[in-house]
């Protein structure tokens, strides 16, 4: 068995340290600051630049509002509920409707 070390005893003699290699210069250079940090590592993929992502042509606020209100109103009216039932379904279904809408529009 190894001898127990005293508390606070350092292990500097037991560890061989290697020097950290210098950072590789970036191969990707943007002419202007696009607001997105970019990397040059193979394991970390660069995100799409803001100009490359989907824009307002695929996203409709009117459609989102219609779905957020229309689906709970339709369900509440189809089961014979009133205003309080509609509010309950709005609260219950808002997150699933948002998740479904965003996943469809971002695909």
UniProtKB/TrEMBL annotation:
This is Uncharacterized protein. The keyword Lipid biosynthesis applies. GO terms for biological process: lipid metabolic process; methylation. Keywords: Lipid biosynthesis, Lipid metabolism, Membrane, Methyltransferase, S-adenosyl-L-methionine, Transferase, Transmembrane, Transmembrane helix. The chain crosses the membrane at residues 59-79, 86-104. It is a multi-pass membrane protein. GO terms for cellular component: membrane. GO terms for molecular function: methyltransferase activity. Belongs to the CFA/CMAS family. It is found in: Membrane. The keyword Phosphoprotein does not apply. Pathway: Lipid metabolism.
């Amino acid at each position: 068995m190894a001898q127990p070390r005293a508390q606070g005893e350092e292990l500097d003699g037991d560890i061989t340290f290697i020097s950290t290699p210098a950072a590789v210069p970036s191969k990707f250079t943007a002419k202007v600051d696009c607001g997105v940090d970019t990397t040059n590592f193979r394991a970390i993929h660069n995100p799409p630049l803001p100009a490359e992502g989907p824009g307002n042509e695929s996203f409709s606020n009117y459609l989102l509002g219609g779905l957020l209100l229309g689906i709970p109103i339709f369900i509440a009216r189809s089961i014979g509920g009133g205003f309080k039932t509609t509010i309950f379904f709005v609260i219950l279904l808002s997150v699933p409707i948002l998740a479904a809408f965003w996943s469809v529009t971002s695909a």
